[in-house]
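TL;DR need structure tokens for one chain.
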Amino acid sequence: NMAAQFNIGDIVWAKLSSFPPWPRKIVRPKKDVKKPKGKKPVFFVFFYGTEDHAWVKAENLKPFEEYKDQMIKSNKGKRFLQAVEAVEKVLRKGGGAKRGRPPKHSASPKSGAHRDADDIDHEEVVPSSKPVQKTYSREPLLGKTVSPSTSVGVKRPPESLGAEASIILKRPREDNESDLYNFDESEHETESDIVTSKDDITPTCLKIGFLGLGIMGSGMVRNLIKTGHNVMVWNRTPMKCRDFVQAGASMGSSVTEVVAACDITFGCVSDPNAVRDLVFGTSGVLQSIRPGKAYVEMSTIDVETVQDVSESIEARGGRFLEAPVIGTRKPAEDGMLVIVAGGDRSLFDDCESCFLAMGKKAFYLGEVGSGTRMKLVANMVLGSVMAGYAEGMSLAERAGLDLQTVLDVFKEGPLNCAAVRSKGEAILHSRFEPSFPLKHQQKDMRLALALGDELKQSLPVAAAANEMFKRAISLGNGDNDMSSVYRATAL
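>> reply
TL;DR here they are.
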């Protein structure tokens, strides 16, 4: 019996689907923590290094000491080694066990103080007085793990874990229930949940192609190269490939050459017409698709186009995944994009190291079209907010308010967020270098409105915002940052 090998308090190696094996401690969840259902036993484990928790199937656990040398040889990442050192510290202090429950600590932490992993009372691991958050996706919540909100070296008291941990589990634990819980293997994780250090990413052994080195593609490719992926690039303007070749990528002379040479090829171009040219054009993606090849479309396009691409790829025996991204230039450069995917689940899994390199979170939403719809909704909201923000700044200026003071006030209230700060500074100083070109934002507004028409959903606010973006383009701001929509109001 695999489950009988482990007990509360054991230090183990645990493997989640999107990550390498990691040192963890088996702990007892709080009574109000909900649990997954199913047939296979799982344990609730504490993550050393990230200080979060997740359910892990017993078959994905291995004894720490027995496999330590093997695991360390296969992972030299800085954060991984810090986690191993944290475990060694626990073992030296006698806070870990090979079998049995660890001793309880009688001393409570001082108010506001943080505790090391070995100081956690395992009856208090996930206390929560907060309401359970709802996570909306096309798949059930079973199998989801906790997303950390701490960086390397930052300690977090368990009191802050309750709301997050409650997302992943299905019902409250009863007093008389076992510490082992069942997990239904048929249910998939719908997201790649934990933001791991880029240093800890183990790159796939598959060869990766990347088509399109624009504002977004450039940042994504740099992060693939930095994390050790074997990458071949192509761009319509070959000169843009030079820096990436110097950084370690190879260069394809055509789209078909890249697809033919690579196991998985990513595409990221400007609009639906560019995608159709890339895939269906002479020497396009489709010419080299055959069984064993895979294509991932990361452009923001309409549902009809993405479905046409999917059907054509699959008709030739290839696998297809849509994976548009939420974020602009800076998140792309920092590897902090949000990826919303739909299509072939096995391809989503094969892309895990790539998504970890490019983003902070990757969601699997289900069938082809789901990711595109999610991206259009997100960008429609962003554009509507940006248009309202521009109008507000214009009104403040017309009312004689100092715009720097306006921004300072915004930063101290509920409007304080990265987008408001960065776009506000751009408006204040009339610096509109493109982080996300206005013409692309207007394109996304147009596609979202078309989706609304198709679904007979009224979108009056988005429609009005779209008119502002169109006006800004007519004033010559199409290639400027989306924040230059302000110029359509300051007349």
